[in-house]
Amino acid sequence: MKLLKASILASLLVGWAATSNAQQDQQELELRLEAPEKLHAVEEQIKQFDKSRFTEIVQLLGITDLGDPIRVVLVPEDSRIARNTPSWVAAFADAPNDLIVLFPSRIGSYPYDSLEAVLRHEVTHILASRAAGDNRLPRWFSEGLASAVERPWGIAVRSRFIWASITSDAPTISDIEGLFTDDANRAARGYTISHALVRNLLARYGPSLVPTLLASVKSGNTFDQAFFSTTGTTISRATLMFWHSSGGWEEWVTFLASPYTLWTLITSLALVAIWQHRRRRIKRHRQWEEAERLEAEIWEEHRQKYRLH
């Protein structure tokens, strides 16, 4: 079962082209960049990004009409909009206005590791909203989907999820939705758990899950109704299944059995052994020095007494 899930997820996140509709032409997403002079270098960097990475998003969402170009506005840190936006927010998407706002100086740490990853994340928000007919999508699904597109389920994300699951005590879907607040730490936990949950749903229900869900929401169903008609279960039940499977002991076993974890453990044990050895050597040298000092004192005392004779 674990190998099957891994195979499904690999084919989803690495080779979405294989699951695309044969009728879907290879349209190219158009991004219209706007930047002040001081950010022209960043603008040029974005122009060099691999356009096929955006095609993968289109295929995952099942979009056949890309719609209008997306404006991408690069904003310097000394601007008023930057001052009015929480410092931990590196970008945001305004789907109704086909707008993405990026703060390049804030990109570099989780969950905003790279400029290209952040841009893919925000493009996913815009396109998912279009695929849903601009109808409401829950924050956990929107952010989890964008995070799954943005980054692979590597050791760094896996370790963050394990820590988040420990500190969050298997939250319900309502609890996960509530993590996306103005608090940076809670929001980071929300991104991590949503990423893991959406990834689990994709592995369980297959690559058709997302386009079917979005099409159902576009037709007028609520997200809850669309989810039930697509999967045959409720979101709450699916969340419980998630925590009982990859959200639980399986995730721990996979994490602990990974080569990275094993090498880290081996390295840590080696460092501890070296440290213990050095402590013993230092202690032994101090004992020798103390013995020599006592011996010198005894000899000096004996020498002085000898002179008295």
Shape: elongated
Low-confidence segments: 1-6, 12-26
Mean pLDDT: 79
- Treating each run of at least 4 consecutive H or I residues as one helix, how many helices? 14
Beta content comes to 5-15%
Quaternary state of the chains: single chain
- Decide which structural class fits the backbone: mainly alpha
Q: State the end-to-end CA separation.
A: 93 Å
Sheet with the most strands: spatial strand order: 1-2-4-3
State the share of residues found in helices, binned by percent: 55-70%
Explain what this protein looks like in three dimensions:
The chain has helices at residues 2-14, 40-47, 52-61, 80-83, 115-131, 139-150, 155-168, 173-178, 184-205, 209-218, 223-231, 235-244, 249-257, 259-308, and strands at 31-34, 70-74, 91-94, 99-102. It has 309 residues and is mostly helical.
Task: Annotate the secondary structure layout.
Layout: H1 2-14, E1 31-34, H2 40-47, H3 52-61, E2 70-74, H4 80-83, E3 91-94, E4 99-102, H5 115-131, H6 139-150, H7 155-168, H8 173-178, H9 184-205, H10 209-218, H11 223-231, H12 235-244, H13 249-257, H14 259-308
Parallel strand pairs: 1-2, 2-4
Antiparallel strand pairs: 3-4
